[in-house]
Write a structure and sequence with these properties.
This protein starts with 11 loop residues before the first helix and ends with a helix. The chain is built from one helix and no strands. It is rod-shaped. Helices cover about 70% and strands about 0% of the residues. It is mainly α. It comes from Halodurantibacterium flavum. Keywords: Membrane, Transmembrane, Transmembrane helix. This is Aa3-type cytochrome c oxidase subunit IV. InterPro entries: Cyt-C_aa3_sf, Cyt_c_oxidase_su4_bac-aa3.
């Protein structure tokens, strides 16, 4: 088995995946807040 060297792994793909996850989460939160505001105003 090869010797492990901390910090030597290529993590570009993981970083792209995590950035996509954060973007999706951010837009999801904005959408949910927008829906809640719309429901609050429509029910008033």
């Amino acid at each position: 088995m090869a010797e492990h060297k901390h910090g030597s792994m290529d993590i570009r793909e993981q970083e792209k995946t995590f950035d996509g996850f954060l973007r999706f989460t951010r837009w999801g939160v904005v959408l949910v807040i927008g829906i809640l505001i719309f429901l609050a105003l429509a029910n008033a």
